[in-house]
Amino acid sequence: MSESLIAYLLLSGTLAAIGVYGFLERRNLIGILISIELILNAASINFLAFNKFVSPDKGLGQAIVLLIIGLAAAEATLALSIILVLYRGMTSINIEEANHLKG
Amino acid sequence: MELFLIFTIVGSPLIAFLMIALLPHRLKRIAPLLSISFIFLSFLSSLLFFLKHPQIQETPFEVQWTWLQANRNLSFNVGFLMDRLNLLMLFVVSLVSFFVQVFSVAYMADEGRGQSRYFAFLSLFSFAMINLVASNNLLQTFIFWELVGLASYLLIGFWYQKPSATEASRKAFVVTRLGDLGFYLAVALLTLHLGNLNFSALNSPEAIQSLSGGMITLVTLLIFTGVMGKSAQFPLHIWLPDAMEGPTPVSALIHSATMVAAGVFLTARNYALFSASSISMETILIFGTLTAFVGATLATIQNDIKKILAYSTISQLGMMMMALGAGSFEAGMFHLTTHAFFKSLLFLASGALIHHFHTNDIWEMAQKGSRSQVLTLLVIAVGGLSLAGIFPFAGFWSKDLILEALEHKPVFHAAALLVSFFTSYYVFRLLFILYFRSETPHAHEEHHESSLLTFCMNFPLISLAVGSLIVGFMGTDLMHHKLLKFISPEAEGKLSIELMMTGTGIAVLGLAVAYWNYLKRKIQPPITATGFRRVLEKKYFMDDLFEKVFGRMVLAFSAFLNWFDKQMVNGKMVNGTAWSTLRLGALLTKVQSGELQDYLMIVFVIASAVIYFLVK
User: Fold this and answer.
1) DSSP 8-class letter at A96
2) If you placed Cys at A8, which of A49, B138, B423, B565 could pair as Cys (CB 3.0 to 4.6 Å)?
3) Does B604 lie at the interface with A, CB-CB under 8 angstroms?
4) Which residues are CB-contacts of B495 (< 8 A; sequence separation ≥ 6)?
5) B592 to chain A nearest CA, in Å?
6) What residue segments make up the domains of chain A, in order of their start?
7) Separation CA B10–CA A29 (nearest Å)
8) What is the pLDDT of residues B382-439, one digit of tens each?
């Protein structure tokens, strides 16, 4: 079981589903950020799993995962700074209150 | 050279119109001079054209260019046709126009600023009329047919400050439009079925054979409705008496000599087509007879001199139509020619009286001493005797020719004789009232006009009087039927002596009754209306009929359209579109909740759906 591709895909799929759910349902911006991290990790696991079982070149998947980790770090920085600015403006990080674009 | 001449004939009044319209204000005073010289140029060119082509009777001259090429079978042309028929009309139109314009110089002398507008419109009318006559195809004729209608509208309403004049101009325009609708349908039908609207093609035996009998009847009757409108045939004659609101020279030119004769001309132009349908010919004959009778009887009770002449014009147009319907188009055209001269003469002379006495009422004229206007009364006598058909004046010859043409149709012949009786009656009534019932004028009341204006007034009167005499003689044995032969080489024009005696007898009978009524019994207005006279005073209820029935119908329909426009077009369609757009927009703003996660939800749902369908 631990050696099959399906197990890895199930894990990453579950992780991604949890991420999307949190992304859509959390009202706390930090929570949403964490959910995004979950989705990114699910993608990373996907890459590694396919790399291990399908691809002939073992280095490529790991390189991409490293790239994703870097990307996630940059994204977290950017997102946190946006959240900080939002907090300064609204004294809240509840996303339901940031609805000024309402038609 | 021919082309140049034709362009001079048809183009010079247009040049006059444009020049007058564009004249700077300082130079507006030369407008009459321009107008008169250009119409004279037009007349000279048509004379020159005739002299250069004496054989025009046998070989018509035609030029044409393609205007629109719709497809291989259908093209619209512009062109000019010169044959005996329209050369005659060209002479009549340009000559009468010329005299009327000269007369207008005196008649409109007090008009000031309006004078240039007046002469511009007259030139526009001459242009349209000459082109109408010179066209070689039905479509072009239709275009200029509408243009003369426009010019007539503009000139009837020339005194636009007078509500009655604008009312009359509108009436004339709308009533003739009613007839033109039929004409337009005929043009469309002929285009569909023949694809060639040239007169020579329309009247060729092949074209007539290729159309079914019913189609020919339909087309000719539709053309005839246009003719009824323009030539004031019963029951569309109601606009002509009202058109007398315009200046008198305009009535002389447009509403007696030229435009109203256009219908007669159009029928004569398409005579082969009309002759191919006996139903159409019968219809023309019947409507002509009705028109002649209605016009002549209505003329007998009018007190307004212009109204008398207007109804008389209607009746004479009816006579022309009778001649055409009876199968003698040369009689119709001959009567058209003589009528153009003596009726424009009568109108101009009545204009001279109106100008002098400042009234249209013949009784008032008599009171103010109409007897003093010797020259005017003399030419009225010439025109009147001609109209009444007294030997040897022009009308005698042409009217007898019509009677001759009707000889084999006893009912219509009798009707024509009755019409002659009424004609002679109202002519002598007019003459008796103006001369014998006139008070002796006060001698001190002489106001002198400048000699130029007097000349402008008298010269056309005398020329037209002489002209009408000459034209009459040109159709008789004495001149070897020159005019008749010119109209139609086969014309015989022999008048039987019995017919001449009958015609004269009827005319004398009319004279006798008029003598009895107005010189023996000394009838004076106001006259109580009884019996038939009441019907006459109501104008056979035709105006009422149009006003009450058709007017109401049109108004009701307009009210419906008004409602439809307000409620349906404006309410449901225009405002409805705006309303539903607003509502839809309001609905769609609900989607814009402003919550990021709602948007993302939509993105996810759509993206998953897209991916699902792509992968599947």
Assistant:
1) G
2) A49
3) yes
4) B397, B400, B401, B404
5) 5
6) 5-95
7) 89
8) 888 888 887 778 778 888 888 888 888 888 888 888 888 888 888 888 888 888 777 7
